[in-house]
Amino acid sequence: MRNALRVLVVVLLASAWMSALASASSKGEPQVKSVTGQVTDNAGQPLANAIVYLKNTKTLAVKTFISQNDGTYTFNGLSPNVDYDLHAEMNGQKSDNKTISQFDSRTNLTIHLKIKK
After folding, report:
1. CA 110, CA 114: separation in Å to the nearest integer?
2. In angstroms, what CA-CA distances link 100 with 12, 26, 34, 56?
């Protein structure tokens, strides 16, 4: 009986230790963010070949994406600890600026951009 009790205690302690390790490792790495959306005109029609600009406000580095035939764009692998500015341009026209805040805890954001013609 004593041996069974000892085995039970060891199993419970090992289980608690493994659970604590798993929890610590999942909290240690911040999640990366992604942003997707669609670029449209005033009438809501998708705009292919619009240039979408994503600016890291810490480093001022800019990434670009040319919208697909259906107007969609995607940026992956964004740092969760940085603010980003986002806008689209086409034929000299520009959408409003949007901000992706580091305080927004969502990892997958959808932001649609409208270019006023």
Report:
1. 13
2. 44, 24, 10, 10
Strand locations in the chain (E):
33-40, 51-56, 62-66, 72-78, 84-90, 93-94, 98-100, 108-110, 113-114
Q: Any idea which architecture 33-114 has in CATH?
A: Sandwich (2.60)
Delimit the domains of the chain by residue range: 1-30, 33-114
Tokens for 65, please give them. Answer: 């994406």
pLDDT band at 28; cut points 50, 70, 90: low
Alpha-carbon distance 56 to 58, whole Å?
6
Amino acid at 92: G
Count the neighbouring beta carbons within 10 Å of the beta carbon of residue 70: 10
Q: What is the pLDDT of residues 37-96, one digit of tens each?
A: 999 999 999 999 999 999 999 999 999 999 999 999 999 999 999 999 999 999 999 999
Do 74 and 36 contact (CB within 8 A), yes or no? yes
Residue whose token pair is 């649609």: 112
